Please model this.
Amino acid sequence: MAGSLVRAPEDWLLEERRKVGPFVTRERYRLPDGSHRTWSSRRRRKVGRAEEHGERLAHPWWRPRLLGWWIAALFMVGSACFALGPFPPYTDAVASSTVAITYFVGSLFFTSAGYLQYVQTIRAGEATDGSTDPHRWFAWQPHRIDWWAASIQSIGTLLFNRSTFHAMDVSLDARQQERLVWAPDMFGSIAFIVASGLAWLEVCDGWWAWRPNDRGWRVAALNLLGSIAFLVSAFAAFIRPATGEVASLPISNLGTFVGAVCFFLGAALLIPELGDR
Model:
């Protein structure tokens, strides 16, 4: 069925379908034996993979054979770098060039994790047996809300790469800093909040839901809060052309730190989510 989350057998009866705009986020089927199966956009790609490798009970936090584990680990390292960058004891102990390098390294981890998350999204199988396509590295799937979220987030990470790379150049004047550092940071933050907003809509099946017992919901909530904090940081980091000074460095640093902590916690929750059913 066009637009469905899964290619269900003909004798499965679709009883419920939830959508956000044109995107299907959840479906519930009744099987011929009277039982029910529910499929959601997020859980289809995120959970139920660990048992295939016999790792659920033996190594709950060490699952390097799972793509989701690498996504979580890379996001955690990148987030740690962005949390360390504005942390006062660190900035007081090292040179400003070292702080700039820390941000740039963190952005590379973000980009790596973002691309793997995109790969995880496009590899998510549409068959009811949960099979995936392990050889798919790129796909055009605009009918999926998670495809848009992963694609836009990856664009945001690339913009952070550009911003943090140029931030290492101390010779830039105010105009150049505004164009090469602040502007891509702002647009990257906007991309992050759009991607996080789509992920939030996906887990809520709409604009709002209160599901604190759902690990995926907590991940989406933390990432949305982190994106809001990053956007506040970007606004506060505006470089005044006349003076070359940042509008509010303390608020910018605080926003970056809070956002990074939220991203770190959200990434950490991705690992136990791999074993959810």
Notes: The longest strand covers residues 13-20. The two ends are 25 Å apart (CA to CA). The beta strands are 13-20, 23-30, 36-40.
